[in-house]
Amino acid sequence: MKQDAFETESETLLLVNPAANRGRAGRVGERVRVLLKDYGIPTRSVLSESVDGAREILKEAVGRHSRVIAVGGDGLVHHTIQEIAGTSIVLGIVPAGTGNDFATAIQLPTAIDEATDVALGDPTSVDVLKMLDSLQQVRFGATIATAGFSAAVNIRAERLRWPRGSSKYTVATLMELSRLPRYRVEMTIDGREVERTCLLIAIANTPFFGGGMKIAPEASASSGSMEVVLIHDTSAFTLLRVLPKTFSGSHVSHPAVEILRGREIQLEMSPLHAADSCELRADGESAGSLPQTITVVPGGLQIASATIADNSN
């Protein structure tokens, strides 16, 4: 692709997490850097393995760069949008992480050259989740905010030294199934009060989490609303049967699954046993403790050449 295929703009920031996906993102990032150089795109290339380092770089980027290209997975996307959501900065994504659920949801290509070309394309406005805790701290989410069993699996997987890669989530799931804490969920969804006893809740801007689990098949980042998926209190055996169905989205017909929809959710959730804990996760990353208010910000993020399927109709 030639330079004149793109509009003239300020220097592009290429942000790479070289440790992502056991080093693959670093290799992909180098290929992207070479492509941008060949295209004649003015680029500042930055490698950052630390969250704090990446956030500082992005804070500096606001006002200096009109486009950020992130090479990595959902974690890098999550930390990137904390600084650029609500701004005019265009986010291009070259998927290279262990989990690429946001890239899958917006139908980005996986081939490096093609993904780079798309990352340089025109922007599309997509929705983001905005989370506000009791201390008035704000966090944004691109895919799904979740608490309960799903968050506990994520936390457990982060602590495992073995196995590496996506298989550690399978091990973490089996470990959490052996204890399976229950939670009391109290929500106000667009003014309507809802109370349930559940195993997990997933508040979805897009359909996927957990590396391809289609937990909210009707969710869309162009709908202006969120899908709220609840898995009610049930046995470990039943949950073990339901979870594999999430990869196809067929779990939604199970009686233990309930799906609601809203634009603003005030969420409070507590474990039924004091020994258990409850944390909100967004895009697989820590998003603080509950209670929180979660809202949709329509068009809150500018994504390069994103294709957003509206599954809500």
Automatic annotation (TrEMBL):
SMART domains, A to Z: DAGKc
Alphabetized GO MF terms: ATP binding; kinase activity
Alphabetical list of Gene3D superfamilies matching this protein: 2.60.200.40, Probable inorganic polyphosphate/atp-NAD kinase, domain 1
A Pfam family reported for this protein in Swiss-Prot or TrEMBL: YegS_C
Keywords for this protein: ATP-binding, Kinase, Nucleotide-binding, Transferase
Keyword Transferase recorded: yes
Domain DAGKc positions: 7-134
GO terms of biological process kind: phospholipid biosynthetic process
Xref: NCBIfam families: YegS/Rv2252/BmrU family lipid kinase
PANTHER family linked: SPHINGOSINE KINASE (PTHR12358), SPHINGOSINE KINASE RELATED PROTEIN (PTHR12358:SF54)
Name of protein: DAGKc domain-containing protein
